Amino acid sequence: MNSIRLFLTFILSLLFYNIFPNLTVYFNYGTFSTSNSKPYLETYLTISGNSVKFAPITNGFQASVNVSWKIMKDTSIIKSANYNLKSPVISDTLQTPSFIDNQRFSLDNGIYNLVLIVTDNANPSKTTKHSEKITILFNRDKKIYTSDIQILESYAKTNVPSILTKSGYNLIPYNINYFPKKQTAIKFYMETYNLDTLIGNGSKFMFNYYIENKETLRRLDEFSGFKKQTSNKVNPLLAQFDITALSSGNYNLVIEVRDSLNQMLSQKKWFFQRQNDIESLSGYENGNFRSLETFFNSVQDADSLKQMVECLWPISSYKEREWQQTQATKKDPALMRSYLTDYWKKEAADTANPLKLWFDYYKLVLETNALLKCGKQKGYYTDRGRVYLQYGKPDQRNQVNSEPETYPYEIWQYYRIYDKATKRFFTNKKFVFANFMISDDCYKLIHSEVRGEVYDERWQLRLVDRSQQKLDFDQTKPEKYYGNNIDENFSNPR
User: Fold this and answer.
1) What is the pLDDT of residues 416-425, one digit of tens each?
2) Average pLDDT over residues 430-458
3) pLDDT in tens, 331-382
4) Which of 115, 145, 127, 137 is nearest to 43 (CA)?
5) Percent above pLDDT 70 for the chain
6) Residues 304, 321, 417, CA angle at the centre, nearest 5°?
7) Cβ distance 383 to 445 under 8 Å?
8) Would you give the distance in Å from CA 237 to the centre of its chain?
9) Beta bridge pairs of residue 119
10) Which residue in 205, 201, 98, 146 sits closest to 2, CA to CA?
């Protein structure tokens, strides 16, 4: 599955509130081929029930969104669709389920631009647009081809085919690459084509699949499996892993096709993140890493080392940040390993285990990247992510997504915090973040009570300046209006 996800607001289900926040859509797609070698594009949408309005109907409440697709080649529209997608009917608006949509578009080989527009029919001001370049390439006569990897919420055998059906199973898509603790399994589907022409019809082969650590590329044998099949025009794979014991970290799901001599014919990877309470990271408990040197020497991927250096900037001094920026640009693996080892040894001094300090910090980095990122920007480079890593988890976090006349905003309160960058302590301090773009979940820090951070006594006016433009610079607060709770939310975050 191509790692394309439209997080119109990237707030995971465990953080959702039933207050009609910004329209939340998870988008993914996959390319497949029929048994007659006709390529097609399959699209997957998940609409968060907590982000759309459930309007009253005769027998309960129902949400409805309008979905518009255009698939273009150069300036020509090749395929298009426009329809209303409805949620299940509910009787209790405190329980608003998410709902899904699958579509299939028959397409020839080529490069296309997909344009998607989703609008809440009960609140037309909630609309968003997304475009994506898509390449389709299947050639039966040349080599083995595989479909994209489709990640599943669930699957079940069926005798009644539908748009969700492949190979006799109804496949319910899972449209994000983040697996919180409550997700105990990763389920997936993939198809392989042309094996009958390449190794001979009816020849034996094997699907080999496993999870590997993204940073070290180390295979986790406890999360692996295989299935033997005989070659055909289309060979499907439907499988799953129990990931209850998979610790927090960055991983790849790897699927290989191997012939009867165990020679690899093809390989496909799908990246995902896992958040869990397991103490050790990414299978490192089995790596016998006794020191920082052995751990960082095991990381072979230069991009992973680069991210390990970059993620230090929220807890680093200005001088350290300059060095990190330079080394991240050069991407010299040896220098980055040396710097990371020296950095954490210095942090640990003689009072702590430097390897444990690094692992503990990296867990927070993974949480930040999953929960607080902005578009393609890593979580540790966002304002909320930087504050989270620099000062820790707030004691109170008040998320206000639907107050009249204001942009969405958050207030974080710390009873006592330690600034890891300046090595100072503070008590009873607050931070205010605002989302001025609304549709991208990119929150900016607009005010803080911590010395050295952004301070703006007119921050309340910034929250409402889309409705109240003020030229009086002596005025620090907006005029009173119905539903204005900014003062109360700031005084008593909860």
Assistant:
1) 888 877 778 8
2) 86
3) 889 999 999 999 999 988 877 888 888 988 988 887 787 778 787 788 898 9
4) 115
5) 86
6) 100
7) yes
8) 25
9) 66, 127
10) 146
Asked if residues 21 and 53 have their Cβ atoms less than 8 Å apart, the reply is no
Q: What is the pLDDT of residue 2?
A: 39
Q: Tell me which of 2.60.40.10, 3.20.20.150, 3.40.50.10400, 3.40.20.10 is the CATH number of domain 1-138.
A: 2.60.40.10
pTM: 0.57
State the Cα–Cα distance between residues 485 and 399, nearest whole angstrom.
12
Q: What is the per-residue pLDDT across 397-411, written as a single tens digit (0 to 9) for each?
A: 888 876 777 888 899
**Average pLDDT, whole number, for the chain?**
83
Q: How far apart are CA 49 and CA 95, in angstroms?
A: 9
Cα 386 to chain centroid, rounded? 18
What gap in Å lies between CA 115 and CA 131, rounded to an integer?
A: 4
Q: Identify the band that residue 281 occupies on the pLDDT scale cut at 50, 70 and 90.
A: very low
Q: What angle do CA 385, 386, 387 make, to 5 degrees?
A: 90
Statement: residue 84 has pLDDT above 90: yes
**φ and ψ at 329, to 5 degrees?**
-75, -40
- Using alpha carbons, select from 60, 68, 97 the residue that is nearest to residue 85: 68
Tell me which fold the domain 139-287 belongs to. Answer: Immunoglobulin-like (2.60.40)
